[in-house]
Amino acid sequence: MNRFALSLPILALGTALAFPVCAAPLNQSSISDDMSLSTLPEGGKLSSINGDVSIGTSDGPLSVRTVSGDIHIKQSRGPLEVHTVNGALDVDHAVAAVEIRSASGDITLDHSDGAVSIRTMNGDSTIDHATHNVMIRSVSGDTNLTLDAAPQMRTIDIGTVSGDMTIHLPHGFGGTFDIHLKQRRSDKTLPLQQSLGLTVQIGNWEKESGGSAEVRTITATGKVGDGRDHVITHSVVGTLKLVQD
């Protein structure tokens, strides 16, 4: 009886050594202290009010929320979700889907292999290498997007009220364009710059609803190359520049 009773903890210890318990996603919050984490094997949920957040590599789903703290992520291999008010966001490489919500902080995403969704009020958005779907909504923040060649069809959808938009297209890019912009009479140049051969239509000057200023609608449509990708842009006051690299 004693031998059997003694063997139970030994058996339990052997089982734990043979089958280690997997690390759980990290759940950490801070008011003003900075958080710096080199690796998150299972991802996690991080929140901060004033402190900055710095992450090396996250392999699992990652959620980061800050008020005024800045966020820097070197590599996110799982789905990434970021909510910030005034903090700036800098991501070196996002392998999976990215969802970002920001009020006034600037957003910089260097490499993006998955779909990207950004909603911001006043912050500027910069994506240097995008290979998947991109959706950006902005009030007054500027957008600078560089598309890389991609093996699959994708949709690029950018909308802003007064922010300026610049889209860099890779060599040999193929896509269809659906562009809707507006121009005020006080603006001396068209809000669209492009040399892709798109068909541009300019509407008549009309007074804005409830105001005295006159505006006209600028639309541009057309197909470039094989027309595979779909590029949609719309703006109330901002400009659009299409650049073929």
Task: Report on this structure.
The protein is mainly beta. Helix content is 7%, strand content 52%. The strands form two sheets. Strands 1, 3, 5, 7, 9, 11, 13, 15, 17, 19, 20, 21 and 22 form a 13-stranded mixed beta sheet that branches. Strands 2-4-6-8-10-12-14-16-23-18 form a ten-stranded parallel beta sheet, with no helix packed on it. The chain is flat.
Task: Output the keywords.
single chain; about 240 residues; mainly beta; 13-stranded mixed sheet; ten-stranded parallel sheet; 1 helix; about 5% helix; Toastrack_DUF4097
What amount of the residues lies in strands?
over 45%
Mean pLDDT: 91
Runs in which pLDDT lies below 50 for 5 or more consecutive residues are 1-21
Order of helices and strands: HEEEEEEEEEEEEEEEEEEEEEEE
User: In DSSP terms, counting alpha (H) and pi (I) runs of 4 or more, how many helices?
Assistant: 1
CA radius of gyration is 24 Å
Count every beta strand, where a strand is a DSSP E run of 2 or more residues.
Answer: 23
Please give the alpha-carbon distance between the first and last residues. Answer: 80 Å
Sum up the overall morphology in one term: flat
> What does the oligomeric state look like here?
single chain
Helix content: under 10%
**Structure classification:** mainly beta
- Largest beta-sheet details: 13 strands, mixed
Provide a brief overview of the structure.
Keywords: Signal. The chain has 245 residues and is mainly beta. Helix content is 7%, strand content 52%.
